[in-house]
Design goal:
The complex is a heterodimer of chains A (about 950) and B (about 475). Chain A is an all-alpha fold. Chain A has 42 helices and four strands. Chain A starts with a helix and ends with a helix. In chain A, about 45% of the residues are buried. Helix content of chain B is about 75%, strand content about 0%. Chain B has helices at about 10-30, 35-55, 70-100, 105-120, 125-145, 150-180, 185-195, 200-220, 225-235, 235-260, 265-285, 295-315, 320-345, 360-365, 365-380, 385-400, 405-430, 440-460, 465-475, and strands spanning about 60-65, 70, 345, 350. The chains are: A mainly alpha (about 950), B mainly alpha (about 475).
């Protein structure tokens, strides 16, 4: 329980500072500090038991489906880190109280700090790796808030954003790694995972999991090549840098590597990735640190370097190296936090952090100076401070390590790293504290800060010295407990002591100190010598990478989504062709269909050729709209011939009548459109479109071929053929399906048709008013009209045709039930007959003679169909059940009268009404556009009128 | 409950909604047309709320002779859809009145589209699937172009219509192929027919075309082309609606089609989904990086989210489907919240749509900035916010199903997408403030607050969503 409380306290407490700030800055700091102190006390209460080897565990169910539970456990490693986080946290809280100026919103600062602290404690105490991930990202978030705390500094924002981008990305990569790990083991509990080292290392997914998890660790702990974000995050207030970038957040990666050490380490992959990254980081970070003039920059890179050192030790994979790593974690946290706080003191007191302007500060601020010098000496690895101890252990390990079978690589580079480390540490000591002040015009006159600011680092420095002198007494138990937790087994034989005799490591240390000191003496020369070396600026590279990404994004979105419908269509069609093709090839077996093919008759061949030629012609001549409309008409005609050829006379009839009606309606519409397509595509585009459409056409053709050459299983055709006569009373199966078997569908369809006609009416009604009407009124007729718009020949012919056509319509209607025909086709035929009258003599003349309410006609049709359907109810049958009787009429003979005929009548009426309504409205627009008066004569040049006139004159 | 029954009771919510839509249409026509906009809107919302109750308390079971089924999966999705569209209507009211698009048909069209979506997720036959889908699509085409007097809106509606018709054609074509090669359109019969065996090649091609048509509806790459233009061009509340309800319905339908009839041949379609998912995640994240218009950004973001959700479907397991449903639930809340924010980006009574317009929001409206930040972090999938769990669930399902590469690509793209979500936060918090926005409407504040609370509360009380999603997924797998 108290374990949970340790984690939760900072989170719960985070609201306190925000409230307490009203009671003053001291109250705020006290509240924050006491929360941390309370958590620390709870932790310390468990420390003795943990050090003696006990492990505390607590577990709550959260999302068991996901394997995500709130489980915490406390062992040596957790204890070490939790102590560091809470202990140093407490010191930072005290320090920050004095560091922050009156203008800084302190409540918010402490709230963020506590959030961060809680997240960090959560990481180190989590037993569930998913819970760990949650806390991991929480640290990214809260550190983002902390780094971005000083909003007025532009570097602050830049740094915050880059830090979040890099660590957040690493964290997301780690999620994948953890998922894989959990998948291998079958549990997300650390305690379970840590038992399964063999299983994990034998898994083929070991390397991906390792790489992904290490990505998270390396980004968080600023390891090469992700080391660049850390120095840029240093724009944050110094307490933040001290806390996040020395003691806690950057150690989270190290923590995780230590945590996972028992299961992930010991393989060549682990050694070469981790140890190499650590080694490179150590040398590189130290080298850059030498040239940093900003105090915090120097410390930042030194942190990078020391983290590299620890990473390298963990990477060696030997238990003794792990012990050394653990020991250095403690030592580094103590001296680096003290150093950061000292840097903050210098900044606070002098107003600058530029080493070139500082010097001789020891005399002005002796207390801070002493603290700084001792800590820096420890960083350099000077005997008898704690930094010396762990560095010795590191060098000792390096001495024994082979890298690609080369014994000299690691020791040499480790020594080089140590040399650089000595150089920058000495620089911190000599250039800042010793010598003479280099700049007399510092913003402030420096003096020692209040106790609140130097107390915390002083305490740490005391630890630095004590651990150095009495390592086994002060740090021994903790190191032992932690190391056994890291190693997960027997501790190796080691000895925490100042003096190990004349070892190679001691020699390397001596070399490091001597050469490092020499380097520093030639510092000026070194700087000018390296000034011209091009140093790759990681931040610039990061920015450049982002810019490249954005450019890539621009390429994708501009080329893919440029707003052009044609492009969208072609992408869709290409994609579906690709899907079809890949689906085709995914199937290994492509047997041909089993159906027998028909012989090619000459008529069919001619029809086919005609179809192809007209289709191609329609494409080629598409810019002339009239021509292409005619060609489309021809295509329709051939298609209906094709239906006849394939024994579908109904379809053929329907097709041809629909064809006629649509061509006429489209002709009307074409009249007010430009005669030619406005813009032609470029040849390249035409080629693209051609290829795409040919591919799509071939694909569709192939699919149709495949379907048509196969017998369909469970076809319903047989049922319809067998039952059409018996149940529907008709031998024309198509018509029986329409009016009987699927009568309900047809009923719905005629309603839709009626609605469509009414919508056309309503839409055009709005066109003839308002804005559109004005445009129509100002329409300039584009080309000359024929003087003989209503030619006599046509007028006479259509008049003669009218009764014939109507008769044909009635015939087709009546025979529909048994022979090809029916209400739909009849309706179209009659419509065509009527439309022809309009075309021949103009709208006005015809309208005056044909006073039919087409709205009513549509309604009548629907009602007729509905009544027919409903009449079945009278007989106690379901809606639309059809009945039929055989009637014998004298002259006509016997015929069948099915109730379906009433239904068909409804269809007929609706079709006629719909077509005529649409036509009437379209022609109205026409007349408005062409400014034609309603013509009252049947034809423009009436011969009878012309003859009559001379007679009158005579 | 036999399959061969009409069983209208199971479809009661749909019937109620359809009847209400027609009643509202009458009301609108006879009660002063657009003057009744507000009344009709609120009544439409009320109808949707009643429908939610009907859905939740409904008896369920198959209906319409096996064409329709109201199982737990359908219930779960319907509740999400109804939330999406009712909030969509609420969000649109004030906007519509301000922007001169307060037509009473608008809430009715949304209601009709919602009926279509509900029918879609309940479809257990290709016929009813298509009916629902088209009812939805036709209403949506009109809704996208509801602002007839602006070219952008009209253009987007037209594009949506043309491309959508082609997609419907593909879907129909695919369905006819499947029917041709298996002899049935019924999902249950299909599932029985296909048990264990391999899909015949024709049916495979047909399935691919069906998927293509469905991909269009959920704007998955490469059938997503309409999305950025339509999202940008349509009025913002319409975009908000588009981003949630139809997307959820489409994905639910996708899941139902893939798992229901074709659940036994996962291996045959898995690669298609994996490919679509990867492409969607890639385009969704990379193309979003450069967007300046926030609605366009949301378009790409939704493409990306669809990709993530499809990761769960690609797994083809019950766990994966649960993941998809959880993802959709969280996605719904995040998107509604985000669009409420976008709708509040109004300055001097004019809408602002650029990301830079958010500059300095942390100073001018700190609470709204904090809410937006939470929404963005959640969208980016950063733990411990709800968005993380959605992503995590689907990735976990994918890894468990052996699709490690897919999960890793998904994570890489979510890193990229995290970057542009963070950019919004950076603009709000670190950039110099521009002139402040107008006062937020109360309803927007409520929506934002509820969304944010839901996202935060999910962390502590995940079970309601998780458990019902699990039950819903189980019902799809016949348990």
């Amino acid at each position: 329980m108290s374990l949970t409380l340790i984690v939760l306290l900072p989170f719960i407490g985070a609201v306190l500072p925000a409230i307490m700030i009203r009671a003053g800055r001291n109250a705020c700091a006290t509240a924050t500090g006491s929360i941390t102190l309370l958590a620390l006390i709870l932790l310390m209460a468990k420390a003795p038991a943990v050090i003696s080897g006990e492990v505390f565990q607590v577990s709550y169910s959260w999302l068991p489906e996901l394997g995500l539970n709130v489980t915490f456990f406390l062992d040596g490693l957790g204890l070490l880190f939790a102590t560091l986080i809470l202990g140093i946290g407490l010191l930072i809280i005290i320090y920050a109280r004095f560091y922050l100026s009156k203008d800084d919103p302190m409540g918010r600062f402490y709230a963020f700090l506590l959030l961060f602290q809680g997240a960090m404690v959560g990481i180190v105490l989590s037993d569930n790796i998913l819970l760990l991930l949650v806390f991991w990202e929480l640290t990214s978030l809260s550190s983002f808030l902390l780094i971005g705390y000083w909003k007025h500094l532009p570097e602050g924002r830049q740094g915050a954003r880059m830090a979040l981008a890099v660590t957040g990305a690493g964290g997301l990569a780690m999620i994948a790694g953890m998922l894989i790990l959990g998948d291998i083991v079958g549990s997300y509990d650390l305690t379970v995972i840590l038992q399964n080292a063999d299983l994990i290392q034998a898994s083929p997914m070991y390397v991906p999991a390792l790489v992904l998890i290490l990505l998270g660790c390396f980004t968080k702990s600023a390891q090469f090549p992700f080391h660049f974000w850390l120095p840029h995050a240093m724009a944050a207030p110094t307490p933040v840098s001290a806390y996040l970038h020395s003691a806690t957040m950057v150690k989270a990666g190290i923590f995780l590597m230590a945590r996972m050490w028992p299961v992930l380490s010991g393989t060549p992959e682990w050694f070469y990735i981790v140890a190499t990254a650590g080694l490179v980081t150590m040398v590189l970070g130290a080298w850059i640190a030498i040239f940093k003039h900003d105090l915090k920059g120097l410390l930042a890179y030194s942190t990078v370097s020391h983290l590299g050192l620890i990473t390298m030790l963990l990477g060696f994979g030997t238990p003794i190296a792990a012990v050394a790593g653990v020991f250095h974690i403690i030592n580094h946290a103590t001296f680096k936090a003290a150093l950061f706080m000292t840097a903050g003191i210098i900044d606070h007191e002098t107003g600058t952090r530029d080493i070139r302007r500082l010097g001789g500060l020891l005399n002005l601020m002796p207390i801070a100076g002493t603290i700084g010098i001792i800590s820096a000496a420890s960083m350099a690895g000077i005997i008898p401070l704690n930094g010396f101890l762990s560095k010795e252990m590191m060098l000792e390990e390096a001495w024994h390590t082979m890298w690609l079978d080369q014994g000299w690589v690691v020791p040499l580079l480790a020594t080089v790293g140590a040399i650089f480390s000595v150089a920058y540490s000495f620089r911190f000591i000599f250039h800042v504290w010793m010598g003479k002040p280099r700049d007399e015009n510092l913003p402030h006159h420096p003096h020692d800060p209040p106790f609140g600011m130097w107390g915390p680092p002083a305490l740490l420095t005391v630890l630095v010295v004590l651990i150095g002198l009495f390592p086994a007494v002060i740090a021994g138990p903790l190191v032992a407990a932690t190391s056994s937790a890291v190693i997960g087994g027997e501790l190796p034989e080691y000895h925490l002591a100042l003096w190990h005799g004349l070892t190679p490591a001691l020699g390397m240390s001596v070399i490091a100190i001597v050469v490092g000191a020499l380097l520093l003496m030639r510092h000026g020369a070194l700087i000018s010598a390296t000034a011209n070396l091009s140093r790759p600026d990681a931040k610039a590279m990061f920015d450049c990478a982002i810019a490249k990404l954005v450019a890539l994004s621009r390429v994708i979105s501009d080329n893919l989504h440029n707003g052009s419908l044609q492009r969208y269509l072609s992408v869709m069609i290409v994609a579906s062709v690709a899907i079809g093709v890949s689906g085709f090839y995914a199937e290994p077996d492509h047997t041909a269909g089993t159906r027998e093919l028909l012989d090619v008759s000459p008529a069919a061949a001619i029809g086919w050729v005609l179809l192809v030629v007209t289709s191609i012609a329609a494409v080629v001549m598409h810019h002339n709209r009239l021509l292409s409309l005619l060609l489309v008409g021809v295509i329709g005609l051939i298609v209906s011939l094709g239906f006849i050829y394939l024994s579908a006379p109904d379809l053929a009839l329907t097709q041809i009548s629909v064809e006629v009606v649509t061509v006429i309606l489209m002709l009307l519409a074409l009249n007010i459109l430009p005669k030619e397509t406005p813009k032609e595509s470029l040849p390249g585009r035409k080629l693209r479109d051609g290829v795409v459409s040919i591919a799509a056409g071939l694909g569709i053709g192939g699919a149709i071929w495949a379907i048509m050459t196969r017998d369909l299983p469970n076809s319903i055709s047989a049922y319809h053929l067998a039952n059409s006569k018996i149940e529907g009373g008709g031998t024309n199966v198509v018509n029986v399906i329409l009016v009987d078997f699927r009568g309900f569908d047809t009923f719905g369809e005629i309603i839709v048709l009626g609605i469509a006609a009414l919508s056309i009416f309503a839409l055009i009604e709005t066109v003839t008013q308002g804005e559109a009407a004005k445009r129509l009124a100002n329409w300039v007729v584009s080309n000359r009209r024929s003087a003989d718009r209503h030619p006599m020949m046509m007028v006479v012919a259509t008049r003669v045709m009218l009764p014939l056509s109507l008769m044909v319509g009635v015939y087709i209607f009546l025979r529909g039930h048994n022979e090809p025909g029916g209400g739909f086709i009849a309706g179209l035929v009659v419509s065509v007959a009527l439309v022809m009258q309009y075309m021949a003599s103009g709208f006005g003349w015809t309208q005056n003679r044909m006073k039919v309410n087409y709205h009513g006609m549509i309604g009548l049709g629907v009602i007729a169909a509905a009544i027919t359907g409903a009449s079945a109810w009278v007989a106690g049958l379901p809606f639309l059940t059809s009945g039929f009787v055989h009637v014998h009429l004298p002259i006509v003979g016997e015929f069948e009268l099915a109730s379906a005929m009433g239904f068909d009548l409804g269809v007929f009426l609706t079709v006629v009404g719909a077509v005529m309504l649409a036509l009437a409205k379209l022609s109205q627009v026409e007349r408005m556009a062409e400014h034609i008066d309603v013509n009252l004569d049947p034809m423009d040049h009436d011969p009878s009128v012309r003859i009559a006139t001379p007679e009158k004159e005579a | 409950m036999g399959v061969s029954m009409l069983n209208l009771g199971a479809a009661l919510p749909e019937i109620f909604m359809a009847v209400s839509a027609l009643a509202l249409l009458m009301l609108g026509v006879f009660a002063g047309k657009d003057k009744a906009f507000r009344t009709v809107s609120w009544l439409a919302v009320a109808a949707q709320i009643i429908t939610v109750i009907l859905v939740v308390t409904g008896e369920g079971g198959p209906a319409f002779f096996g064409q329709f089924t109201a199982d737990a999966f359908a219930q779960f999705c319907k509740v999400m859809i109804l939330i999406g569209s009712s909030v969509g209507i609420i969000m649109s009211m004030k906007f519509a009145e301000r922007e001169n698009m307060a037509r009473f048909e608008f809430p009715i069209l949304i209601t009709l589209a919602t009926v279509g979506m509900m029918a879609m997720v309940s479809a257990s036959d290709m016929m009813s699937l298509y009916l629902g889908l088209e009812l939805q699509s036709l209403a949506l085409y009109v809704v996208a172009a509801i602002r007839r007097d602006t070219i952008r809106s009209t253009e987007s509606g037209l594009k949506y219509f043309i491309l959508g018709s082609i997609a419907s054609g593909m879907l129909l074509y695919g369905m006819s192929m499947v029917y041709g090669f298996t002899g049935t359109t019924n999902f249950a019969v299909l599932a029985d027919t296909l048990t264990g065996g391999d899909l015949p090649v024709g049916a495979m091609v047909g399935l691919a075309f069906m998927f293509a048509g469905l991909c269009f509806k959920i704007s998955a790459v490469p059938f997503h082309m309409w999305t950025p233009d339509v999202y940008e061009g349509a009025p913002t509340p319409v975009t908000a609606f588009f981003a949630v309800a139809p997307k959820i319905a489409g994905l639910a339908l996708f899941v139902r089609v893939a798992i229901g009839p074709f659940g036994s041949v996962v291996a045959d379609w898995q690669q298609i989904i994996v490919l679509i998912s990867i492409l969607s995640m890639l385009v969704g994240s990379f193309a979003a990086l450069r967007q300046e218009n926030i609605k366009r950004l949301m378009a790409y973001s939704s493409i990306g989210h669809v990709g993530f959700a499809l990761v769960g479907l690609a797994a083809g397991t019950e766990e994966g489907v649960t993941g998809v449903l959880v993802y959709l639930g969280i996605y719904l809340v995040m998107n509604l919240g985000t669009f409420a924010v976008i709708l509040c980006m109004r300055r001097n009574d004019r809408m602002n749509e650029e990301i830079t317009d958010l500059a300095g929001l942390a100073k001018t409206k700190p609470l709204m900035a904090a809410i937006t930040a939470i929404l963005m972090f959640s969208m980016a999938g950063i733990p411990p916010l709800a968005g993380f769990f959605g992503k995590f669930y689907v990735f976990k399902a994918a890894v468990d199903a052996g699709l490690v590469t897919l999960a890793v690509i998904g994570l890489v793209t979510s890193v990229v997408s995290a970057y542009y979500y963070l950019r919004i936060i950076k603009v709000m918090y670190f950039d110099e403030p521009v002139e402040g926005f107008d006062r937020n409407g109360t309803e927007m504040n409520v929506i934002m607050a509820v969304a944010t609370i839901a996202i935060l509360a999910f962390v502590f009380f995940p079970n309601p969503l998780m458990d019902s999603a699990a039950i819903a997924a189980a019902s799809l797998f016949g348990q």
